[in-house]
Amino acid sequence: MVETGIDIVEVARVQQAIIQHGDHFLKKIFHPKEIAYCEAKTRKYEHYAARFAAKEACRKALLSHLSYHPAWTDMFIVNDPGGKPFLHLDEKIMKILTIRHISVSLSHTQTLATAIVFFEIGVK
Questions:
Q1: Choice between 76 and 95, residue whose per-residue pLDDT is larger
Q2: What is the CATH number of domain 2-122?
Q3: Phi-psi category of 103—alpha, beta or left, where left has phi over 0 and alpha has psi -120 to 50?
């Protein structure tokens, strides 16, 4: 079975939340590896927004398979050495679902960020 999630978010909305709520917002939504990655970027809010969109897309794809709402930090994006993003899921999610393959794509401009996530879920 293949599940798909997609999301688009305004960069300014994520930027405003980060500025208004600071570390509380960052730690609630983003994994420390995501924070380190985004903070190292010149246009960090675009990168935060793309990762936020990926989390939303992930939740959309998985929600019908889970009996609970995963925490925002139960899923996070890291980049491989070549720069390709990879979606990591919390071990609890991985134990509940037999996920055979995960694919994620991120894109952003100065004003919008989008993400699409594909899961190939096997039968337990």
A1: 76
A2: 3.90.470.20
A3: beta
